[in-house]
Amino acid sequence: xxxxxxxxxxxxxxxxxxxxxxxxxxxxxxxxxxxxxxxxxxxxxxxxxxxxxxxxxxxxxxxxxxxxxxxxxxxxxxxxxxxxxxxxxxxxxxxxxxxxxxxxxxxxxxxxxxxxxxxxxxxxxxxxxxxxxxxxxxxxxxxxxxxxxxxxxxxxxxxxxxxxxxxxxxxxxxxxxxxxxxxxxxxxxxxxxxxxxxxxxxxxxxxxxx
Length: 210
What we know:
The protein is an alpha/beta fold.
């Protein structure tokens, strides 16, 4: 079954270009193209969507706010695709539940691989974006998380989530089933009060839950 993708961008050329690229690959189905974050939320609440591609700057509602509301209100996974590599945008996107942050100058293959990885539960960050996150960690040194709160296996999973691995990849590395990985992630979320795996990664990398 193809991955159902919603494209959200106020530039019609971008929308139509992405639509053509994705529809030429049988792994994807573009269910709709919308012009702003509010339309994206409304669509995700009423239709079956797996991945919501979101630009950052759009009229009516930007992609950062839309990402937060889509994460809170639906099971759709937001993925930012934008021209802006602004530090604040990147960190806000991740904190708001975005499962990835890619720049529009990425190759079509890179974008399609990212959509597939996010669909499978992974986190995707472009190299230049990861560089900015690393620079942020150097500027603001990491506060250690309360590791004694977690079992050794839970810490293994937290570290692998922070590397962007999907459940399937974590299961393979740890020689356990995907169901077992999901159970551990549920336990981690319950212990931390966090809501999704992206927040687990940020918690591990920064020591902050906010």
